[in-house]
Amino acid sequence: MNKPLNDGLDRKVDSWFTISSLFLVLLVGGLIYKEMNPPYRVYQDEAYLALALAEESAGNSELAAYYRGEAEGKPPRGIRQLFLASGEVERCGSCHVDDSGLESWHLENVNPRFPTSFFGCTVCHGGDRMALEIHRAHHGLKKSVAEMEAPLWDSHSENAAAIISFWNRLREVSPPLSNPLAESQPDYRDVSITGKPMGTFGVAVCLSCHARSTGLTEHIYSERTWDHIDRWSESKFESFRVVEKEPDYLTPPAEILLARGLSEEAYRANCKGCHTTGYDSATDTYRDGGVTCEACHGPGEVFAGLMMRGTVPTKTGPHSFQGEGALVARISADRNVCITCHNPNRHELRPTEGERGEHARLASRRYEAMNHLEPLPPLEGAILGPAQGYESEELFEAQDLEAVGQAIAEKAGCLACHSITGIRVVGPTWKGLYGSERILSDGTVVVADEQYMLESILEPMAKVAQGYFAGMMPGGFEKTLSEEDLQAIIAYMKSLQ
User: Fold this and answer.
1) Under 8 Å between Cβ of 198 and 301
2) Residues β-bridged to residue 439
3) Angle value at C-alpha 277, between 185 and 487, nearest 5 degrees
4) The CATH homologous superfamily of the domain defined by 393-495
5) Each residue's pLDDT tens digit in the chain (497 positions)?
6) Where are the domains of the chain?
7) With helix as H, strand as E and coil as C, how does the chain read?
8) Alpha carbon 258 to chain centroid, angstroms
9) What does the DSSP 8-state code read for residue 425?
10) Distance between CA atoms of 218 and 212, rounded to whole angstroms?
11) Residues 6+ apart with CB under 8 A from 205
């Protein structure tokens, strides 16, 4: 029997059909396998196993069995999604399954305002919030504090845009406020790009550049701006001095404390929240007594950090950190900042009747002008030395020198840039500084003795530490700090070991 003429062609077609069918079978099988065993499942299983081992070591056998899937109830599997207030979806929890642990850590170590169950992860850390594969999910991820802060201090970045876009993003994913007096979303200008609360510098640092008497900014600031500073320095800056003398502040009314279930400290804290600047309710401390610059303009950590860096050369030309700082400063005060204190209910705890009652106080218009107060001491001479704050040289010497140094450092604004905990803020930390070896920007190594610390205060550009820039620290402290002040500050620095 003769073979058909197209037999060879049929064989080729059959071969290609077989190969194509096999390829399709393998492809479909691979897709089914991947769908049944997605990559995130591996990380999910590893995360649950890690939780089980941790609970076993802690002696929680029942919880360990739950995470292993051996108990009656089993931990949730599959894609885990978080719906943000903006309507967006985030899937980080598909691999990072320890929701409560992550949230507890962030509330304790970052900021109690930002529970991860509301704000998610990508708002601070970046990455692809919808991806379930590790490479895609972690693309652009900022794991460490240094990586998150890099756009703020990098001379090749738009520093102001980085922090402003972060604040705007926080507002987008925030649950809306229910206060009818407020804007729909909270204001976050008191938060740094890592989500942590920003530090306040204090009015002394602000006025070291912005006061009329310094003459440092005559080419920028108009008479109107200086008049604004002068007007506030004679009124709001001193408001806490009025509050401290009020009878109900000195002795909170017992009937109000009983009715509200408050302690005397809690009653006074309600006053400090509005009449001081940089108030921390957890420690009952504040930066300035009075409503000073940062009460309305926001904490100055980022702004001052940028301004102190000046202008630096780059391959594409000079980069002006001061220009970036100016962009941050141009953001006007948010209405939510104002209504926190300026609202009808703020004085609801106070007595209403009598000569010193709230009705009489409002009628006196005393909140609008407090020029009858004695002016604050000028920013000249010693800040807390014998010239100001002590009756005599002998009384100054009788004080605990380290405690005096701490008070002077706080008053001068030192602790706004230099932490005492070992954490880098703007400048080097003071913790463990004394006696340590310091690598300078030129590569030389020096020991941080008393002479080094004194020189660093009076001539901050003489020896610049590696990793910092000349001009970051303002000068002129020889005009505002006496010899006694300097001795006390150095004694305090030496104690921070």
Assistant:
1) yes
2) 445
3) 140
4) Cytochrome c-like domain (1.10.760.10)
5) 455 555 666 677 777 878 888 888 888 887 777 666 778 888 888 888 999 999 889 998 888 888 888 877 778 888 889 998 888 999 999 999 888 889 999 999 999 988 998 899 999 999 999 998 888 999 999 999 999 999 999 998 999 999 999 998 998 888 776 655 555 567 788 899 999 988 888 888 888 777 777 665 544 445 666 777 887 887 888 889 888 988 889 998 888 888 888 899 988 998 998 899 989 888 889 999 999 988 888 888 888 888 888 888 888 888 988 888 888 877 766 666 777 777 656 676 676 655 555 555 544 444 433 333 343 343 333 333 333 333 334 434 445 788 888 888 877 777 767 778 776 666 788 888 899 888 887 888 899 899 998 888 888 878 888 877 665 676 667 777 888 888 889 998 998 88
6) 40-137, 151-242+285-364, 393-495
7) CCCCCCHHHHHHHHHHHHHHHHHHHHHHHHHHHHHHCCHHHHHHHHHHHHHHHHHHHCCCHHHHHHHHCCCCCCCCCCCCCEECCCCCEECHHHCCCCHHHHHHHHHHHCCCCCCHHHHCCHHHHCCCCCCCCHHHHCCCCCCCHHHHHHHHHCCCCCHHHHHHHHHHHHHHCCCCCCCCCCCCCCCCCCECCCCCECCCCCHHHHHHHHCHHHCCCCCCCCHHHHHHHHHHHCCHHHHHHHHCCCHHHHCCCHHHHHHHCCCHHHHHHHHHHHHEECCECCCCECCEECCCHHHHHCCCHHHHHHHHHCEEEECCEEEEHHHHHHHHHCCCCCHHHHHCCCCCCCCCCCCCCCCCCHHHHHHHCCCCCCCCCCCCCCCCCCCCCCCCCCCCHHHHHHCCHHHHHHHHHHHHCHHHCCCCCCCCCCCCCCCCCCCCEEEECCCCEEECCHHHHHHHHHCCCCCCECCCCCCCCCCCHHHHCCHHHHHHHHHHHHHCC
8) 36
9) S
10) 8
11) 300, 304, 412, 413, 416, 474
Q: Torsion angle of alpha carbons 240, 241, 246, 250, nearest 10°?
A: 90
Length of the chain as a residue count: 497
The amino acid at residue 127 is: G
Integer Cα distance of 346 and 323 in angstroms: 38
DSSP structure class, residue 91: -
Q: Global pTM?
A: 0.64
Q: Which two tokens stand for residue 169?
A: 């993003």
